[in-house]
Amino acid sequence: MKLTEKPLLNNALLISICTPQFKGEEAKASLAELARLVTTLGFKVVGTQSQNQSSTQKMSVLGAGKLAEIAHITGNQGEGEEYDSDTEDFFDEMDLDDIPSDNLPFGCADVVVFDCDLTPSQLRNVENQLGVQVYDRTGIIIEIFSRHARTRTARLQVEMARLNYVAPRLRESSIGDNERQMGKGAGETTLELDRRKVRDQLAELRRELASVQDELKGRRAQRSELFCVALVGYTNAGKSSMMRALTGSEVLVENKLFATLDTTVRALYPETQPRILVSDTVGFIKKLPHDLVASFHSTLAEAHDASLLLYVVDASDPTFRSQLDVVHEVLAEVGVDDIDKLLVLNKSDQLTPEQQQELMEEFPDAMMTSTRNPLDVAKLHKYIVNASEQGMIEEEIIVPYDAKGIMGEIRSSMSVTKEEYEYDHVKLTVRSSAIDLARLKKLMSK
């Protein structure tokens, strides 16, 4: 795989390897999620295949018979043996809930995607057997991240993860092979040069990312005295829709996995005094590649520095409990553990009243919401405001009329609950954090 390669293929065949540790409903749900990932990347899923194996460590991953069957589906373009089967008419539209697995037409797939990670040698062996582009699950996720990264930080993080994935999968070009075989190769081979180029690129990206992270750290420090809410959750749980509903901002909302990767920070709307900030973090997914978790530590720092975490789940998805486990695991990995949390059972408009009641009995401390319901949004807004006020102090302040700039400072950073105008001063009752009150008193003493 060359560094500049981009998938230009359309029709994908999905492969599930079932092992004693990974089978049944878990394997089925994972394959359905892979179908959504592949569709997000722009491919059309034309079918699925599965095979039971003791592990995923075999050099060819699959048995010889299954490889021959798959080679027939990809048009017998590789080195594998041919497989005889009656062809059928091709299909135009296919619901992802009804992906075929039997009697797939000859040559209907031009890309194969495995729902597991493949080693470089496994990837190479399967591609040789099938004669088409082969991806593993990590390769698909990284490709999606590469396409969806928008900000400088996200692009740097994704590129580092991509290069870490590509590096061990680099192969000697045919020119390099011929030169080496003919004894004409001088110095480093093409493969060695490519690997050194990747190492140099990674080193440069790390330096650039460190510089960007210092800038982000400075911005977070400026916001550290404000109450911050971070939306965390599985990809496609509705975090971006909730972000837009809570802040009135035009953030990207799409029914796709990883539609947004970049952390967005906006003020809660209607605005409060002091302001409350809301951040939307990158979505999580099962089997999230370790390099991506490592790369996105700075993005998840928004969650680390938050005053309140909203765990957003798609309550209409039967697998949301296992998805919630993934969120817990990833946040624990980046050190987010002792922050106040609220479970938000989102997309309640897709549930029956009976289903809603059952979920609230199962999760009595959660909040049932739909971002399409203004009353639900208002209820969540009120919860956030109340949570921010729990740590505030109420105090009475005397402000002389000739005190310059004091009233502006108070109104911009504090909640004024009472005002009394006297002959030579204003008596205010304010609610604020201890830090803001101390800063105000220091300013007034000058």
Automatic annotation (TrEMBL):
| Subcellular location(s) of the protein | Cytoplasm
- What does the entry list as the binding residues for Mg(2+)? 240, 260
**Limits of the Hflx-type G domain:** 227-359
Answer whether the UniProt record assigns the keyword Magnesium to this protein.
yes
Locate the coiled-coil region(s) and give their ranges: 188-222
Report the SUPFAM superfamilies cross-referenced here.
P-loop containing nucleoside triphosphate hydrolases
| InterPro entries, sorted | G_HFLX_dom (IPR030394), GTP-bd (IPR006073), GTP-bd_M (IPR032305), GTPase_HflX (IPR016496), GTPase_HflX_N (IPR025121), GTPase_HflX_N_sf (IPR042108), P-loop_NTPase (IPR027417)
Sample GO molecular function, one term? GTPase activity
Entry keywords, A to Z: Coiled coil, Cytoplasm, GTP-binding, Magnesium, Metal-binding, Nucleotide-binding
Give the CC-aspect GO terms.
Answer: cytoplasm
At which positions is GTP bound?
Answer: 233-240, 258-262, 280-283, 346-349, 370-372
The protein's required cofactor(s) are namely: Mg(2+)
Q: What subunit structure does UniProt give?
A: Monomer. Associates with the 50S ribosomal subunit.
Family per similarity comment? Belongs to the TRAFAC class OBG-HflX-like GTPase superfamily. HflX GTPase family.
The record describes the protein's role as:
GTPase that associates with the 50S ribosomal subunit and may have a role during protein synthesis or ribosome biogenesis.
Q: What name goes with this protein?
A: GTPase HflX
The organism encoding this protein is Aliivibrio finisterrensis
What gene codes for this chain?
hflX
